[in-house]
Amino acid sequence: MTRIIDRIPESVFRIVSAFVIFVLLLLILFPLYFMVTTSFKFEGEIYSELTWIPRDPTLSNFRDVIVNFHIPLYLGNTLIVALSTTAIVVVVSVLASYALTRLRFPGRAAMARGVLFVYLIPGSLMLIPMYLIIVKAGLKDTFPGLIIANMSFSVPFCTWLMMGYLRTLSSEIEEASLIDGCTRMRSLWHIVIPLSVPAIITAAIFIFNNVWNEFIFALVLAQDDQHKMISVGLANFYRADIYMVGPMMAGSLIAMTPVVLLYILAQRYVVGGLAAGAVKG
C-alpha cells in the first residue's frame, strides 16, 4: 500500500487533497449558510419555495426572538451557568491534575484511570441519578443545580486534559523551588500555572462550549423561564403545531455567535494546548 501511494504524482495528490477539503468545507458550511439566509426570510418565502438568497431580506425574525421569545433572558441564564461552571471546573481540575501527576500517594494510578472511566460514561446514563440528587437537594430550577450537573461531566474531561499537559512539563523547576523553600501551593501558583496557560485556556473553552450547547440536563433540571438555558429556549419556537423556522434560525445564529467569537479569539491557545497535551514528555 505504501509503495502504491509513493508512486502517485504529487500534482495528482494535491488535486485529490484539494477536492476532499472542498467537499468537507461544503458539508460544514452549507448548514451555516442555510441558517444565515433563512434567518433573513419571511415565513411565506421559507415555506413557499427554496431560494438561495432572500428575495426580500428582513430583520423581523431577530426582532421577534428578542421581543417575543425571551432570547436575551436565556442568553443571560446560559452565560451565568457557563461562566460559573468553567471557573469552578478549572480550579478543581488544575488542583486534581497536579495532585495526580506530581504527588506520590497510594491509589494514585487507580484514581487517574478512574477519572478517564468517569469521563467515558455517557451523560444519558447519569441523567436519572443526577436528577434525583438535584431534586432531593432542592436545587431543581436553580443555577446551582445546573452548575453541579454540568460539573459532573466537565471535571473528568478537564482533569484528564490537564494531566496530559502537565506530564509534558519538566518537574526540575518545581523541585528546585521546593529545595529553595517554596511550598507546593506557591510552586503551583508561580511556576506550574503560568506554564500551563495554553492548556488551561483550551480546557476552559471546551468546558464553556459544552455547557453552552448542553441540552439534556438543561431540559430536565430547569423548566421555568427564569432559569431556562438557550439550548432549551431554541426548542420552543413553535405556535400550535407550526415551528417558527425563521425565528429559530435567527435565534440559533445569535446563540452561536459568542462561542464562535471565543474560538476565533483563542484559536492559537486551543491549537497549542491540544498539541502539547498530545505528546508525553
Task: Please provide a written account of the structure.
The protein has about 280 residues and is mainly alpha-helical. The chain has 2 domains: about 1-60, no CATH class; about 65-275, MetI-like (MetI-like fold). The protein contains 15 helices and 2 strands. It has a two-stranded antiparallel sheet with strand order 1-2. The longest helix is centred in the N-terminal third of the chain and has 32 residues, at about 70-100. It is globular, with a radius of gyration of 24 Å. It starts with a helix and ends with a helix.
List keywords for this structure.
281 residues; mainly alpha; MetI-like fold; 2 domains; two-stranded antiparallel sheet; globular; disordered C terminus
What is the number of strand segments?
Answer: 2
Q: Into which percentage range does the β-strand content fall?
A: under 5%
**CATH-derived topology of the largest domain:** MetI-like fold
Continuous helix count = 15
Q: Report the order of strands and helices.
A: HHHHHHHHHHHHHEEHH
CATH architecture of the largest domain: Orthogonal Bundle
Rg: 24 Å
Gap between N and C termini: 32 Å
Mean of residue pLDDT values: 79
Structural class: mainly alpha
Helix content range: over 70%
Short characterization:
The protein is an all-alpha fold and about 280 residues long. The chain is built from 15 helices and 2 strands. The longest helix is centred in the first third of the chain and has 32 residues, at about 70-100.
